[in-house]
Amino acid sequence: MIPGGEVLSLGIFLAVLGAIALAVQSLSIRYGTITSDSSDALVVVLAVNILVLVPAAFLLGSPIQDLTLRSLAAFSAAGLLGTMVGRAMHFEGIKRIGSSRSEPIKASQPLHASLIAVVVLGEVVTGGHFLSMVAIVLGIAIITYEHGRSERSDAESGYVGLAFPFTAAFFYGIEPTFAKLGFAEGATVLTGLTVKTVSAGLGFIVYLWWTRGLPDPRGIETRELPWLVGAGLSNTVFLLGYYGALELEPVSLVVPLVQSSPLVVILLSVLFVSDNLERITPRLVVGALVAVAGAIGVTLLS
Asked: What is the pLDDT of residues 158-168, one digit of tens each?
């Protein structure tokens, strides 16, 4: 039997690994969607997910035997809502307003995830937990104000663009509760990820086919394709860390810790990203710090 402290340490390690991978994914998407559509990015990332996770699931386990109708429905819902809709909104937000602004706004996910976890899973939110959520909202308000006054704000990157990461946060917040319901049926991490990514991939392909036709890989800019593949690999690492942590720890602990990724995004943006893609201002850094401090506070006070 694994001692509780060791389980906690492993869960936190996996969540932090997921946060770092998520930050790398966001910046890769920023570089990979300069001219390419966010829908192209989503297709490539989902394809990489499937190519890595599905063979791993069958080599390391028995995903079909692990599934029940309840877990199949839960993971499929997680894929359609979080992986397909949430990720589509997330990638479009990065394309329009940049990683350094989109990521902290998406960090409002704990507000949605924790509330849903309380209602559906019976998890407890303490007073300190609630105050930390208020800090998340305050940080997002600062970022919103800073973005609104930016010279780059226009119809594409102004307040309209802010709606995409907000929407992504809502759908990402729904996803972990469905994942926990699937794990409660005895499914493994790889089984859950396999069902989630395949359902999201099929759902998005059907959506594209119905609305504008199947995607054409030749339409992706050659110099941007490696960034999108890199985003897919980073996202796969994120999923393994995130779902591994969810299997060990409550939603209200894992989700906020993963949302420390905006700090990594800002650090990498300062070091490596050109100003024409990401403009890092003091007010933006303050907003991100406040939002992430709230996310970490939710973790520590849970």
From this structure: 567 778 888 88
Q: Where are the domains of the chain?
A: 10-300
148 Cβ partners below 8 Å, 6+ apart?
Answer: 158, 159
Angle between helices 127-148 and 282-300 (to 10 degrees): 160
Q: What is the pLDDT of residues 132-152, one digit of tens each?
A: 777 777 777 777 666 555 544
pTM (global) more than 0.85: no
| Spatial separation of the C-alpha atoms in residues 269 and 27, rounded to whole Å | 8
Within 13 A of 101's CA, how many CA atoms are on the CB side? 32
Residue identified by tokens 């933006």 is 284
At 86, is the secondary structure helix, strand, or coil?
helix
HEC readout, 21-62: HHHHHHHHHHHHCCCCCHHHHHHHHHHHHHHHHHHHHHHHCC
pLDDT at 50 over 80: yes
